[in-house]
Amino acid sequence: MEIIKIPKKEGIIDRTTGKVLNRKLRVAAYARVSTMGAEQLNSYESQKKYYYEKINNNPEWQYVDIYADEGISGTTDYRRASFMKMIQDALSGKIDLILTKSISRFGRNTMDVLKNVRLLRDNNVAVLFEENNLNTLDTKTSEMLLTTLSAVAQQESEKISEHVKLGLQMKMNRGELIGFNRCYGYRNENDKLEIIDEEAEVVKFIFDKYCDGHGANGIAKMLTEQGIKSPKGNDKWNDSTIRGILRNEKYKGDVLQGKTYTADPLSHKRYKNLGEADQFYVSEHHEPIISPEKFDIVQEILKERCGARVNGRRIGNVGRKFAFSSRIRCGFCGNCFTRRTVVGKDREKIPSWSCTSFAKNGKENCTDSKTIREEMIKEAFVDSYKFLSLNTNFETEEFLNLMQDTMNENNKQDELERYKKEFSNIKSKKSKLIDLMVEDKISENDYNEKVEKYNRKLEILENKIEQLKLLAEDKKSISEGLQKVKELLNSKDIMDQFDQEIFNAIVDYVIVGGYDENGLIDPYLIRFILKREFDLSVPKDVPDEVVIQNNKIDLNSNNVLVDFINTRKYFSYERDEN
Description:
Largest sheet: 5 strands, mixed
Shape: elongated
Mean pLDDT: 72
Radius of gyration: 34 Å
Low-confidence stretches: 72-78, 307-319, 532-578
Number of strands: 23
Structural class: alpha+beta
C-alpha cells in the first residue's frame, strides 16, 4: 500500500471550480468606538488610517472597505448596522478576509461571535483577530480557542457591566443626574436642568387644564389644534404623552433615578423598575415648573381616574378608585370635582368633594361653589333611586333590554382585533428595515425616518388597543350592575344604602350646584344625569317640589366612556345640606 500526500493549494480557491484564483485577497476591516465624541472620533480616525495603510501595504491584498459602528455595545449585534452590512457583503462574495482588533470588538456575546464566524467560514471568509493572532480558517486550533476566548470576553463584559452599574448607583446616591434623557421643558446644561420658557408654558397649560377637569385626550387635541409641536416634534399630540408629562416628577423640581434597569448585560434590554433594583429620589434637585402642591393634586386626580383592580380587572365604571371620581361636575363653572378630606369638629375625617377650580384658586375662579360631603351625594342617590323606582311608570325589562342592546351594538371586539393585527404588521415591517438597509435597498437616513414613523404608529395603536380593552372591562362591569338593577327592581325591595354597581350602571355623571326654579343660587343642588332615555312619566299625585325635568343636554362624547346617546334626560333631586 502506497500513501501519497497531496499538498494543499496555495492561494484562494474557487469553491465552484476548485481552481486557484489568480487575484489578490479582498480584505476589509471592522472597528467599533463607544461614541462619536471628539476623543472617540480621533480613535476612529486612527483605526481607519491603521487599517487602510495595513491593507494597502500588503501586495497580496486588495482594499475593500472599513466598517465601523458607534455608540453600540458589542454584546448584541442586531443594532450594529455597519457590522450587519459587512456580513452581508461578505456573504455576497465581496470580501475574503476581515481584520479586527479583538474578539471583544467583534462581539462579546459568545453565541453571536461563534454564529457569525461559522457563517463566514462556511462561505470561505476568514476573520483575523489581530490581538490573539487567530485566523478562523485555521481549523486546527481556531474553534476551541475561539470558544474559550469568547467565553472569557463574555465574562469580562458581565464584570464590566457590574462595575458600571455600581458606579452609577454611587452617583445616584450622591444625587448626581444620570442618563438624562430629553425632558420637555428643560435643557441639560453641564448636568444642571434649566427651564425652556416656551415649553414650560405648555407644561403649565397641561397641568392647569387637567386640574380644571379636562382629560388627557382632550388636552392633546387642544395642543394639536393650537399648532404646538409635541416633544418629539410631531404635529399631533397623543394622550399618552400628556399622561407622561403629568406623572413626571421633574416638573415639581424632583428627580427619581433608577426608573428602569438592565436585567441582562448581554442583551442590554431595559425593564421598568418595579422594585427589582434600588431607586433614588432626589427632592428639590432643580427649579420646578409646577408647584409641588399642584403636582400632588394632579397625582390624586390621576389615581382617582386610574382606579383600583380586583383579580386583575378594574372595578367600577372607568375603574374609579372612588365612586364619584371624574363623575361630578360643577354646576357653575363646569369643571370636575376632586375628592378631599375635611376635618370635622371632633377631628373626624369627612370625605368631601370640591370643584377643582374652587379648590385651586378659591372664590376667585368659582364664586358660588361649595364643598359637599360625599355621604350627602350618596344619600341623594338612594332617595332619587327610590323615587325613580316607585313613582315612575317605566317598564323595567324594556329599559334593561334597551341598555343591553345598546352595549351590544357598541361591541368593539372586531375593531380591537383589527388594531392588534395592524400593530403586529407594523412591528414586522419595522423589524425588516435593518435587512433592507444592509442590502443597500434604503439609506441610513431613510431607515431612521421609517423607524420614527413606525414608532409613532405603534404608539397610537397601542393607545387605541388599551382604550378598547378598558372599554371591554367597563362594559362587563356595567353589565353586572344592570343585572343587579334588574334583580332589585323585580324583587320590589327598596335600596336603603348606596350601591356603587347600580350607580355606575345607570348614572352618567352628577352635577352639583346650580340655580333653583326661582333662579336662586343653590350650591347643594344635586342632579343625576342618566345614561339612557327613561320613560319617566310622573303620576299626578307626585308633589310639585320633586320634579322630573325633560331638558335635553348636549354632552361632549369625549367625557362619556360608554356613549349611549347624545341627548339624555336627567332626574333632578334637590336636598338641603342641613
